[in-house]
Design a protein that fits this description.
The structure holds two protein chains of two kinds. Chain A has strands spanning about 5, 10-15, 20-25, 30-40, 40-50, 55, 65-70, 75-80, 85-95, 105-110, 110-115. By secondary structure, chain A is mostly beta strands. In chain A, the strands form two sheets. In chain A, strands 2, 4, 5, 6, 9, 10 and 11 form a seven-stranded mixed sheet that branches. The termini of chain A are far apart. Chain B is about 0% helix and about 50% strand. Chain B contains no helices and ten strands. In chain B, strands 1, 3, 4, 8, 9 and 10 form a six-stranded mixed sheet that branches. In chain B, strands 2-7-6-5 form a four-stranded antiparallel sheet, with no helix packed on it. The radius of gyration of chain B is 14 Å and the shape is globular. Classes of the chains: A mainly beta, B mainly beta. The interface between A and B is medium-sized, with 29 and 32 residues.
């Protein structure tokens, strides 16, 4: 079974631009979570989607948004990019057989390395 | 490969020795804990998990110990190999629809 895939793997943007990152979960997985990883802050939770609905959101500004499609694929968008948005953006999927629980094992993709100049 | 964290605590271990990586978790209400391994240029890889109704869980060459009294989690790797060199993260959450909270990570360096 293929793992979580993320595209693109690397991206360079300039301040003020916007960017869209894509994540395809493991086949059959219904929950997708997004994380931002930086050397200073570590891994920080952005948001989680289940059945096309955002069910958890981290402490990030409204410039960060996401969505999930009916096939469970997910995208995240960052508008008006800032230098501090440079990071590795990770997507993780989980089976989520019981939507009331969040303790399914999350499997991560390789990430998208975003550099903002 | 890309550096995950420039100023992480580092544990250097001789090949063949056992490694112990420690983690102090933050929320006394957390009841699910996971260890992840992240190699350079890759996403975190699941190693082992444990729920709060257990003190110890063993996998292949790895053991996780949970001490709820002092909010401490440890990962023991037996017969450490060069391929174990990576950054290790502990993560916690509360069962019932809450996101994972990750620790800062520890870099394990295996000396051949």
């Amino acid at each position: 079974k293929a793992g979580v895939t993320q595209t693109p793997r690397y991206l360079i943007k300039t301040r003020g631009q916007q960017v869209t990152l894509s994540c395809s979960p493991i086949s059959g997985h219904r929950s997708v979570s997004w994380y931002q990883q930086t050397p200073g802050q570590g891994l920080q939770f952005l948001f989680e989607y289940f059945s096309e609905t955002q069910r958890n959101k981290g402490n990030f500004p409204g410039r960060f948004s996401g969505r999930q499609f009916s096939n469970s694929r997910s995208e995240m968008n960052v508008s008006t990019l800032e230098l501090g948005d440079s990071a590795l953006y990770l997507c993780a999927s989980s089976l989520a057989l019981d939507p009331g629980l969040s303790t399914d094992t999350q499997y991560f993709g390789p990430g998208t390395r975003l550099t903002v100049l | 490969g890309e550096s995950v964290g420039l100023h992480l605590p580092t544990l250097s271990v001789q090949e063949g020795d056992n490694s112990i990586i420690n983690c102090a978790y933050s929320n006394s209400a957390s009841d699910y804990f996971i260890w992840y391994k992240q190699e350079s240029g890759k996403g975190p890889q699941f190693i082992i998990d444990i729920r709060s109704n257990m003190d110890k869980r063993q996998g292949q060459r790895v053991t996780v110990l949970l001490n709820k009294t002092v909010k401490h989690l440890s990962l023991q790797i037996a017969a450490t190999q060069p391929g174990d060199s990576a950054v290790y993260f502990c993560a916690e959450n509360i069962e019932g629809n809450t996101p994972l909270v990750f620790g800062k990570g520890t870099r394990l360096s295996v000396i051949a």
